[in-house]
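Exercise: predict the structure of this protein bound to glyoxylic acid.
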Amino acid sequence: MSKKIFVCRPIPVVGLEMLAAQGHQLVAHPGPLPPTRDELIKGVHGCDAILSLLSDRIDAQIMDAAGPQLKVIANFAVGFNNIDLAEASRRGIRVGNTPDVLTDATADIAVGLSLAAARLFGAGIAAVNNGGWKTWEPLGWIGQDLQGKSLGIVGMGRIGMAVAQRLHFGWNMPVLYTARDRKPEADSLLKALHVELDQLLAESDIISVHVPLNDQTRNLIGEPQFRLMKPTSVLINTARGEIIDQDALVDALSSRRIFAAGLDVCTPEPLPLDHPLHQLENCILLPHIGSATTLARNAMATRAAKNILAGLSEKPLPFPVN
Ligand code: NAP
Ligand code: GLV
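Solution:
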């Protein structure tokens, strides 16, 4: 039987075709910008499934607006902090995400940011573009080496492990990590050490954040944590902006408490143009493009569609989070 699916934004057509092929009615929010709250409330009315993006807050109000027939919410992302999971579970609504298929793409961005931040690409590109580049500079744009430096992975999950493998085998970096449990694969393959966050922050040269955003990880890295870091350390965040206290980050970068930061995520997104982070030459910021490759995005669309098709048939989701 045909069901109504609200799609919060155009996603790769491969996923939409899978849903349409089953005769379902797709109601897609048009255009590149997220639906406003009102548009979301109106759009989900009467739908059986929601295909949401990480920028769409899906909470009790949206579930009420959809109605009691809502069966499944498929997030087009691996992170699902935008969804009130407890509320969905309480109502028996299945929630799914798109793990694994974006791991390599996101790990590549973390490695790219590590190089870009450690070697001051931001300051160099700014100088090239604004006339600040006058000559070959024996004392200018001096960055940090990566070879043999220590890497701290905050959250040794899928992406954390992929970043650690790249930097351990590529740049000979010893690895420290945090996670709720020890990771035998990291311990044996990378000879990585499971440590407390404070030790990781004090001893690592590159610190790369990969924990999900939740009540335990919001502002995990704030002023007390910046005080533990080395003045030469480089902080990378490809997870979620809210995991780092952004005001404390601005202070740490502007006072050179740490050397540099490379961010694919921030708070809010997009960051207003007058935000102080934009003024800092030791901060490089990307527009949340971790999973932005054709391969990853097509696979995410396929996984989201599979989750919806399973949920509409009242079957367990192939990629569940509740
Ligand atoms: P994952 O496999 O679930 O890894 C998360 C890791 O964090 C797990 O190892 C987990 O430890 C650890 N963790 C959770 N809570 C923790 C805490 N309080 N303290 C220390 N460690 C904790 O997830 P993933 O696939 O690697 O993705 C990670 C995050 O990256 C996503 O949630 C998303 O927010 C973000 N992301 C961003 C982009 C982008 O475009 N920039 C793309 C993809 C993902 P245990 O294993 O011991 O539970
Ligand atoms: C992107 O940020 C994701 O969580 O997939």
